[in-house]
What we know:
CATH class: Alpha Beta
Number of strands: 6
Number of helices: 2
Amino acid sequence: MSVEYINPSTSAPPRGYSHVVKHGNTVYIAGQVARDRDGKTVGVGDAKAQVDQVFKNLEAALAAAGGNLSHIVKTNIFMTHREDLAAYREVRAKYMSNDNPPVSTLILCSGLADPDFRIEIEAIAIVP
């Protein structure tokens, strides 16, 4: 089985990593942050705007691998502000069903790669 490295044109070009690696039906998605396709941070200081951009980036990553958000089986969420949990849950509900949610780990941390980032989500998906 070959390994495919994918960097969607709708995402900011990565430096030193791939946004998506697909091996067979398994898709590994690098931590997605609130950057648009031009590399600009979206929603500085605005948790909802940042979570929304992260889910848009996850959608783009999965689409590039032939999948969608319903194919996610595992997420790791890194957040810098505990008070952003409600905003995260609210925005996540717009993108993901609660019928069969993926397994998930949420980690509160003191910071991410850019001090303006409030959230980062990495995922594993199984696509048909």
